[in-house]
Design a protein that fits this description.
Shape: globular
Radius of gyration: 20 Å
Order of helices and strands: HHEHEHEHEHHEHEHHEEEEEEHHEE
Strand content: 15-25%
Bound molecules: S-adenosylmethionine
CATH class: Alpha Beta
Number of strands: 14
Largest sheet: 12 strands, mixed
Length: 356
Amino acid sequence: MDICEVYLFIINNIFRTEFLWCWYTLVYKDRYGRPLEALRLIVTQRCNYTCTFCHREGDLYNGRSELKLKHYEVLARGARGVGVVEYKLTGGEPLLRNDIAEIIRILVKYSAKVSLTTNGSLLKQKAAELADSGLHHINVSLHSLRKDKFKEITGGDLSSVLEGVETALSYGLKTKINTVILKENLDEIDDIIEYASNKGIDVNLIQLMPVFYYERDPVRRVELYRKLNGDVWLIEEGLRKKASRIELRQPHNRTVYVMPSGIEVTVIKGYSNPFACITCTRMRITHDGLIKTCLYRENPVVDLRECLEKEDEVCVQRRLLEALMLREPGFKLPYQLSFTSQSPGLSRREGSQMGE
Ligand code: SAM
């Protein structure tokens, strides 16, 4: 055992209490003073939708199988030991996993909050077991309220998603709407807010992130971005006029517009908001057990798989801390879109590893 393992052993076995996470967040910080509090788990790469803009959570690593239940148990036990208190399940489409409720139950045992993002297509069938699993809330992606447009954007069927939302609400499952701001749905944002207001549910309006890993050519990526991206500033201008209150919330410095109906509309500018990274406290775990330090960079990743296979909690902690030390704020993909004007332009990063 080296000194780091002795330290982790003492923290894990002698001082372990539910209150210790605040101690962990004081002690374990990256080089920019940010602790690790949240993990975004890509529980599968499989998806039944084909969203035109999808970033796939940056999980493009192939060749290994999905993590199993026993792996999530080891991960959650280890991660608690370095301060993780929150999980978001995503994908791919997380509801395609038959054991999704069991994964949630495991994570709930070791954390304060577990939530899940879904395209909603299977929500009607799964809402009951999700409501029973201890899940804190779900985010349902809804990019259009028009059947044809919805099909064009996602390849999916709108009515099954709307039925899914109804069923989730009927089981008392706290539900939020996620809408990515696209050129194609700019004229529908008000309708989506009205739909959510009628149901009393909050909305996240998400700025399109230029993270299209499936398109390797950086010039094509920028073309794609220009083609798809809706003007977030235009939307915010409208929201400012309609909101009864506006707040700035952490983490990620997000602006929240409280509407007269009482629902909250949060604008998530993960890309153009220069302060979004300052309070970021999360990393991602890919479907097969890699720690991805940030969506905005392809590398480095740190491999957890071996620790999970060996069911070695301390090994999990060491790797999480190793990844934490590699974190850097800012957009680190090898192309950058300038937001000095409202029509972004390209500036290539030198020495890039991607896009060749
Ligand atoms: N299949 C699920 C779904 O559709 O919600 C979960 C996976 S999806 C990658 C997670 C969230 O990321 C969704 O709300 C989706 O709309 C959002 N998203 C995907 N690609 C994006 C992009 N390029 N920019 C901004 N948000 C994106």
